[in-house]
Each structure stands twice: as structure tokens, then as C-alpha cells.
Amino acid sequence: MASNSDDALNLSGVSKHYGKRSHPLLALDRVDLTVPRGQLFGLIGHNGAGKSTLFKLVLGLITPSQGDIHVNGIAVGGPDFRTARRAIGYLPENLVLYDNLSGLETLEFFAQLKGAPKTQCAPLLARVGLEAAARRPVREYSKGMRQRLGFAQALLGSPQLLLLDEPTTGLDPSAIRDFYDQLDRLRAQGVTIVISSHVLAELQQRVDALAMLGNGCVQAQGTVAALREHSGMPIRICVAGDAARLTELVSALQVNVGHAVASLIRPTPDTLEVHCVREHKMAVLGLLAPAGLRDLQILEPSLEDVYFGLREEA
């Protein structure tokens, strides 16, 4: 199957099973997935959903039981893929490093394996904040420092596709912010990034689109906004004001837009939460806006809310 040249990654009908054909263990089941060039794309799902298997298939480390995979238009496993794979950077979930090597020696070792120039190694260590620790043995590195070294390894050779499996494990908040700043700069340069993470709050404001894997299948995919629409979860509108006026508002909402309100909650006498059906948001706001309230907040469902909502539907 041909792949669109504008796609960095394309999976078509990809399955991977282990064991006997009569009783196969399905790791991936007929997965269709497309990631356009230059996107920051998220993969979410429970442990065992198939995320790491998908990465290994894209890298050519394992072969699919069926289906086709293309990276930048080149078939994985095809005659041209050995060269094309040098344009892929990979950070595995469980990073194993040689404790007796220094950080710089570690990068130089991986650069030799990948055919990348060793002159990239020192600048990459500086880029991930390990310049001062470049000559220290890796056994003295903290978990966060090892993770940053692994990220530097993934950047060797200036890859055009980055596969990052739980990349922020062990990083402190400052390092996480720096990490995503690095991803923003890479994306601006046209690099395609596929990131798997259980920390959904990190991905929510950062990804261009994402796919939700469950039991080896793609259960949903699209932008965060599109997944919110698909989930059908209500919007929360939180208001504060005079207790008597809020009591009047509750009655007005029930009479005028009762069909649009999933629930009304009064945490305190002077606060009110309206859980509103998305398509009727403006009708509800039309009643709330002129009510002389002290405060009004509109809260969209978080990516975590959407994830669990869609899992219940699947």
C-alpha cells in the first residue's frame, strides 16, 4: 500500500499477535493510524494497550503479523528502510545505560552505532542540561539525569521522526518544562514527534492530536477538542453570587433550558455548578450572563476525564 508523502507515519491494518494461531495473544489488532509531518502526536492508553509494541513495529525491531507501516513514505522492512531508520530517534520507556561510561562516552558510543557525527555529542549534552556532568560516570546520574541523557541519545543524527516512550519519567517540573520547550523547537523545525505518556495533563495543552489505544485497538483519535466532542461529556460552568439570586437561577435554568443541563450542584449557598450539554452552552450562558454574578468560569472536560469517559464506552 502506498503512503501519502505528507505523512511522517502511516499504519494500515496493522496487527501483531504472539503465540499459537489457534489461541493468539493480540498486542495490536488492525490498527489504522496516520501522523502528518511536523505534528506533536500523543499516544495514550493503559499498560498493555499496545503503545510500546507500536513503537517497536515502527522501528522494525519486530515484524507485524499483518498490515503495512510506512515512515516518511518508506515501507518498514523494505529495501530502503535501513537507511531511512537513521532518520528516526527513539527513547524507550525502560532506558538501559552502561554505568561505567561517562555521559559523553555514552553519547559517543550511540553516535558510532547510528552513524552520527561525534561532534554532535557535547552540544547535545549541553542542550539537555548535562554539560557539567559530561565526564561523570553514568552510575552517578540520578533518574532524571539518565532520562535527559536518553533524550540526547534520541536526538543524535538530527532525526526527522522522534518516538518517545514515557519520556518525562523521573524529571522534575523544571526539567519537564524544558523538555517540552525542546519539543516545541523541534516541531517548529519540521520534526515529527510521537510521544507516549500516562501523564495526560502534560499532553492536554501540548499535542496537535492524539490516539487512544485500548486492548490493541485504536479506540479514538483526533485533536483534544474533537475527542471532547466525541465523548459527549458535559461542560462545567461554575458561578458565584448572592445565594438568593442563585436560587432564582436554579429555577430559571430548570424551566428554560432543563434539556441542556446535565446536573446542578450547590457546593455552598453562594456558589453553583452547572453541568451543561455542550451544544446548548450558549443558551445556558445567556441565562447566566445578565444575572449580576461575582464570578463565572467555564471548565472543559480534561483529557483525563475524556480518556476515562471513552474507556467506559469502549
Give an overview in words:
The structure is a single chain. The strands form three sheets. Strands 6-7-8-3-9-10 form a six-stranded mixed beta sheet, with helices on both faces. It has a four-stranded antiparallel beta sheet with strand order 2-1-4-5, covered by helices on one side. It has a four-stranded antiparallel beta sheet with strand order 12-13-11-14, with helices on one face. α6 links the parallel β7 (161-165) and β8. The protein is globular and about 75 Å long. The mean pLDDT is 91. It has helices at residues 51-59, 81-84, 103-114, 121-127, 143-154, 173-188, 200-204, 224-231, 243-256, 281-288, 303-313, and strands at residues 7-18, 25-36, 40-45, 66-71, 74-75, 88-91, 161-165, 192-196, 209-214, 217-222, 235-240, 261-265, 271-276, 295-299. It has two domains: 7-222, Rossmann fold; 233-313, Malonyl-CoA ACP transacylase, ACP-binding (Alpha-Beta Plaits, 2-Layer Sandwich), CATH 3.30.70.250. It has 314 residues and is of the alpha/beta class.
Entry summary:
With 314 residues, this protein is α/β, with parallel strands linked by helices.
Principal-axes geometry comes out as globular
SS-derived structural category: alpha/beta
The strand order across the widest sheet is: 6-7-8-3-9-10
Strand content: 25-35%
The CATH first-level class of the largest domain comes to: Alpha Beta
* Residue-averaged pLDDT: 91
- Compute the CA-based radius of gyration: 24 Å
Which sheet architecture does the biggest sheet show? Answer: 6 strands, mixed
Distance between the termini: 29 Å
Helix content class? 25-40%
What is the tally of beta strands? 14
What is the tally of helical segments? 11
What is the level-2 CATH architecture name of the largest domain? Answer: 3-Layer(aba) Sandwich
Write the H/E string, N to C: EEEHEEHEHHHEHEHEEHEHEEHEH
